[in-house]
Specification:
alpha/beta; two-stranded antiparallel ribbon; 12 helices; 12 strands
Amino acid sequence: MQFGIFSVGDVTTDPTNGTTPTEHERIKAMVRIALKAEEVGLDVFATGEHHNPPFVPSSPTTMLGHIAAQTSKIILSTSTTLITTNDPVKIAEDFAMLQHLADGRVDLMMGRGNTGPVYPWFGEDIRQGIPLAIEKYALLRRLWREDVVDWSGKFRTPLQGFTSTPRPLDDVPPFVWHGSIRSPEIAEQAAFYGDGFFANHIFWPTSHFQQLIAFYRQRFEHYGHGTADQAIVGLGGQAFIRPKSQDAWNEFRPYFDNAPVYGHGPTLEEFTDQTPLTVGSPQEVIDKTLTFREHFGDYQRQLFLMDHAGLPLKTVLEQLDLLGSEVVPVLRKELDSLRPAHVPDAPTHASLVSAASASESVSTGVSA
């Protein structure tokens, strides 16, 4: 079981004192948060990709390459990489390069994005979001797995005798998660390829994501990648933690009430009741997170959103201390003890290399 954090990289005014970080300060804060995540024993740091204010992470591989140079263990990922508005050739090159720089500590999450104006900025039409995602990802897979690619499609110019460089580390592409809030077509795509499916699981009720994940598991088995309970599932979540529950509620309330996404809407009490957001003590976060397995089955990756809504860096780092020291060790022990032996761990570069070597050995043995 992998635990980590993901950041949307928002630049938001702190409602308690009226201060707004500069873009430079927010970018540097995200790097500090990633380093802290490794320091406290988390497995994954993931950054979003946005091209519009008030967000800063427009170039995830630049940021992750910088973080890779300062870390040694943590997996570096995205949440998400915009497959619809990026060129698959550039994605193939950028993430293969990042693989080499990070010695394999890289995977990525594909997503369509939910900001309409971004599409025309990059020459695309949001009404073609699903077809774009399907065609571009099919090309990306070929670019990583074939040394020379001839290709033609609807949404970009053809390729003739093209080789993407550098080649993936150890000839094994980064593992891909497909992130979705609402689209069964994306769950279908993840299942077709045997990739991971990441349910954002932040804003909508549990019942909605239960349907999406159940559909993905069913189709994963349909395509012959394993049984439904062996499908690779990741979940998002949110938490605000203090040693005493009431302190957490009192401190987080003004940030929630004024957050750009859900501020001035449901009350904090309503939102925590209806979504995965947990505000309270470490034990309360543990208890609520353990219910995710009851709702979705055994899963492989849990990412928390903890650095949004104008929370100051000092507070976020304190949150990570509590997450790493008091929450994750208990969750890891409990969830690992409950997971059946036939349900796989989350893929890593090492496990993918091992699987590729085993497959090659079997193939060689059969041909011999």
